[in-house]
Each structure stands twice: as C-alpha cells, then as structure tokens.
Specification:
This protein is of the alpha/beta class. Helix content is 33%, strand content 20%. The strands form two sheets. An eight-stranded mixed sheet has the order 2-3-5-4-6-7-8-9, sandwiched between helices. The chain has a two-stranded parallel ribbon with strand order 1-10. The model is unreliable at 1-23 (pLDDT under 50).
C-alpha cells in the first residue's frame, strides 16, 4: 500500500469511527441529549452536600449531621450536560432519595445524557422530641435550626406536636434543597454540567419544595439564620448563585410559599414575577385532601397572569380512571411521567435531540 493510499484509508477509518462515537457534541453551547437510552449510567451515592443541625430523641442541644445526595451521570465524553435535581416526597416526615420510582427516572434521564441528582434533606425525623416543653423551651431547642419567627408562627397555627414539627421541617427541607442546588453549581465541572440548564423537580412534599426553590429569592431560606446561630451554614457553598430554567411538579401545592408569606407578612404571591422558571405540572383529579388538583389550577392561573409558560398535564391511571396522589404509573396519551417531562424539557429548553 503506497503512502497516499494509506493516508486516504486511515482518514476514512477515522471518519467512520467518529461517526459511530456515541458521545454527543454541543451545538452553539446548547446541550445535546438522546431520544433513546444510549449511555451506560454510573452513580455516585451518598455524597455529603452540606451539614445541618439536628436533634434525636434524647438530645438537648442540636448537633451537626451530613445531608446527602446521589448523582446519576452518563458514561460519555460530553462536557455540556443539562442537570435535573429531584426532591423526594414524604410529607416532610420522611422519605428517601433512592425511592424506586426516582431511581427509574434517574436512569431514564442519565441514559439520555442528563446528570440527574436525587437529594435527601432534613425532615421531622431529625427534629427530636419536644413533649412536655414550654413554648420558650421549644424556641431554644430549635434555635439555629429554624428562624424564631417561623417557630412562633408554627406555635400559633399548629394544633398538634406533629403538625408543629412538620411546619418546622418545611423550613429545614427548603434550606437543605437550596444548599444542594448551590453544591451542584459549585461542582458543575466535576460532572460536566452546564449550569445554564438547571431543572428542579419533586413529588408531593418534594414538589412543594421545588416550587418554593424556583420561585423564592436567592436569600430566602438562607439568610434568616446567622452563621453564629448555625455554624453548619459554612458547609453550604453560600457564595454560589444559580438560576433555575425549568421546574417539574408532581401532585404538589403552594403550601410552602403560603407559609413563607404568612411568617414574614408578605403580600399574596409576592414572590412570583415574570422571571420565574417555566413549569411542568403533573396532577390528577382524584380526590386528594393533601395536594388537591385545585392547587395546580391556581399555579396555572398565576403563571398565565404573569405571561410565563406552564404546562399542566391531567394524569390518568393506566386504566383511564383519574389519577391521585403518588401516581407514579400515571399516563397521558400513553406517555409516562419521564417521557412527558422529557418532551417538556427538550421543547422549552430548546435542547438538541439526537
């Protein structure tokens, strides 16, 4: 084989190899994702993204605990990946980041080119026992964990100890979710994340938290407690800022924003404005006293009044009946939740799909 023929032959082989390479290329800075599952998914589990103050059943003073997340990422060579952070449900009383349905969604997205991050956060399980305490003792018990004005509001409104602690856990969950999002921005290079393409989502209590995360100001649920009161704040990447592009909401509500406005005496929906992220909502019409369908209609109305795009998909059970709370197997026009949200994100974020 003469030299010229060899060069031509080698060039053809190189071109074919490049054509068969499964790693995506960016298009003017826009991430490229795959229509079908394409990549092997790797997972980094139980990464500590922050510390937070906590109580157990016997503690009298708060102590720091690690708060963790799991990162699912594609095995490819892309340095331009969108990211989807998901927040589990559980009524702010429990729940796990590795719920099987979340793991399934994580693999759906990561196999198509996203970095998918599922987070844990503090719930009532980390708020100890306060039976028999006076209101003043309760305020001291939770000092540094929840702002005093939030505690006072919860004391006034809660009818039971469980309700009171659930109200406090709404705050700690939000503080932690914001810390997780700052961790993502601080570590975007490690996972080749394009932080201009941030999606946050959640189910039930996670959806309530996701809405408040996307709508509230950067300083909300962050600056109400000082570092002197809560030294673990120094572990939460306080210098990082973020901008959420899209929100995904499964059977949630406005409850946390309503609570924030009540605590700080704000005008109704004072936190909503025309710069808020676009919103996908999946919510069924089956009776649900915790997160009724009317909450989704209310959010849709707020978005319409501000001229922000939102998409409400009314979920059905596979047999065609109205879906209710926790409808992970719900469908719309034969598509499940992962496919429905995929369609929304690639459409509204103008992602390149191969």
């Amino acid at each position: 084989m003469n030299k010229l023929v060899f060069i031509i032959f080698f060039t053809i082989l190189t071109f074919i190899a490049c054509e068969n390479d499964e790693s995506p290329t960016s298009n003017n800075g826009i991430p490229v994702v795959q229509l079908d599952p394409t990549y092997t998914v790797s997972i980094d589990e139980d990464i500590t993204y922050a510390d937070g103050l906590s109580h157990d059943e016997s503690s009298t003073t708060p102590f720091a605990i690690p708060i963790k997340l799991d990162v699912y990422f594609p095995e490819n060579d892309s340095d331009n990946r969108p990211v989807f952070m998901f927040i589990h449900g559980g009524g702010f009383t429990g729940g796990i980041k590795h719920k099987p349905e979340i793991v399934d969604m994580a693999n759906y997205y990561a196999s198509r080119g996203w970095v998918f991050i599922s987070i844990d956060y503090r719930t009532t399980e980390e708020l100890g026992a306060i039976q028999g305490m006076t209101p003043d003792e309760v305020k001291m018990y939770y000092k540094g964990i929840v702002p005093q004005e939030w505690i006072e509001n919860a004391l006034d409104g809660a009818q039971t100890t469980d309700q009171f602690q659930q109200s406090l856990a709404m705050y700690t969950a939000q503080r932690d979710a914001k810390a997780a999002l700052r961790w993502i921005v601080a570590n975007d290079n490690n996972y080749k994340i394009n932080s201009d393409y941030i999606t946050i989502g959640g189910a039930s209590a996670g959806a309530i938290t996701a809405i408040a995360l996307g709508i509230s100001n950067i300083e909300d649920f962050r600056d109400e407690i000082t570092i002197n009161e809560d030294p673990t704040l120094t572990t939460t990447n306080l210098d990082q800022v973020y901008e959420v592009r899209s929100m995904v909401y499964f059977w949630g509500s406005n409850a946390k924003l309503d609570a924030f406005e009540a605590v700080y005496d704000l005008e109704q929906y004072d936190r909503y404005d025309t710069n808020d992220p676009e919103l996908f909502m999946g919510h069924g019409t089956a009776e649900d006293p915790l997160t009724p369908y009317e909450e989704a209609l209310e959010l849709q109305g707020i978005y319409e009044s501000l001229g922000i795009y939102s998409r409400l998909m009314t979920l059905l059970q596979p047999n065609g009946d109205p879906a209710g709370h926790g409808a992970w197997n719900a469908v719309v026009d034969g598509k499940g939740l992962s496919e429905l949200t995929f369609d929304f994100l690639v459409d509204r974020q103008n992602l390149v799909v191969e």
